[in-house]
Amino acid sequence: MRKSIALFLSMLLLITVFCVGCNKQSEKTEPDIAMNKVTDESFKRTITDANDQVVEIPQNVRKIAITCHGGATHELVVLGAEDMIVAQPTMERFPLLMKIKPQFNGVVDAGSFDNVNVEELLKLEPDVVFAFCGSEKGNTKIKEVGIPVVTMLCGKANIQALKNEFLTTGIILDKNDEAKKLVAYWDEKLGLINNRLSRISEEQRKKVYYAGGQLLKTEGGQWWINELVTNVGGVLVSKDMVSNGVSMECSIEQLIGWDPDVIVCSRETGKSGLAEEIKKDPRLKDLTAIKNNAVYDYPLGAFWWNRPSPEAPLGFIWLAKTLYPEETRDIDLKAETKKFYKEFYKYELSDKEYESFF
């Protein structure tokens, strides 16, 4: 009997010790879990943006707001990250993009550039905001409420800087392979153009004037259009003009004095027609470009082909074929365009859609 009682007391003591131990372990685990959660949430990484600013961002970026128009949305689409977008300016000016990605119809517009709606952004809780590198006022507002801002080049790009931006965006989105594939595509197509046109002498290079939506609105040598024209063997007649902004005004006398061989016109309003207006302008009747009927509206695909964006190599090919049709006759622009859309937009472009670009 005494042995039974002793055994029972021993077992009771063991159970008590075990329960106390469990309670202590439970009490110890809760703060440990909380500490792990804090550690995970505060685990950051840094990247360098278009303004050469080091920006601290979450390790895992899942929600992105965009406050610029210059192709940032298109970068996310071709990298396969469009579902991360929780806010962006309306994409109605790009009807083909809206057709490719109809879900953009329901995306919140939280403003753009310096006119941003910080309250709306706070509701959406983005991990990162992609913003124009020149929107200092708007970007400061966003930073002040604690949201990381990564600046993008938009229209202020050059070829190498834009390729670097693709790679940086790939790192942010965990889309490194996709970004490297896009950069490789750029290198391949620009290399193809260079191979065809490298033997053109300086004397044979076509003089090009760029009309940025209006006859006398153009760009100087420090901006994208000079990169575009130069890399397809042309000479931008306004290359020596300098301005603080991307675009500038020239005079009708300057344009006549330059006497360009070719005039290309922006369609950033989404409408064509400037080329026809220029052809009919009596002040320009003696220009070489007018005499040779060499005035063209630039194509508009899912983005403007005359502006920096992932599909810009198609704009390079178009201009190369426009300036030097004989040297580039073996390059099939239609086939190249369809291939790009299938590979990067995951979209089968129809013949009718392709023709609408022009």
Q: Can you put this structure into words, describing what you see?
A:
The termini are far apart. The chain has 2 domains: 44-180, Nitrogenase molybdenum iron protein domain (Rossmann fold), CATH 3.40.50.1980; 201-356, Nitrogenase molybdenum iron protein domain (Rossmann fold, 3-Layer(aba) Sandwich). Helix 6 (159-173) packs antiparallel against helix 7 and helix 7 (176-197) packs parallel to helix 12 (312-323). Residues 1-41 have low confidence and may be disordered. A 4-stranded parallel β-sheet has the order 4-3-7-8, with helices on both faces. The protein has a 4-stranded parallel β-sheet with strand order 11-9-13-14, with helices on both faces. Strands 1-2 form a two-stranded antiparallel ribbon. The longest helix has 40 residues, at 2-41. The protein has 358 residues and is α/β, with parallel strands linked by helices. It contains 14 helices and 14 strands. It has helices at residues 2-41, 72-78, 95-100, 118-124, 136-144, 159-173, 176-197, 224-230, 252-258, 274-280, 288-291, 312-323, 333-345, 351-356, and strands spanning 44-48, 54-58, 64-66, 85-87, 111-112, 115-116, 128-132, 149-152, 207-211, 217-219, 235-236, 247-249, 262-265, 295-297. The chain is globular.
Quick recap of the structure?
With 358 residues, this protein is an alpha/beta fold. It has two domains: 44-180, Rossmann fold (3-Layer(aba) Sandwich), CATH 3.40.50; 201-356, 3-Layer(aba) Sandwich (Rossmann fold), CATH 3.40.50.
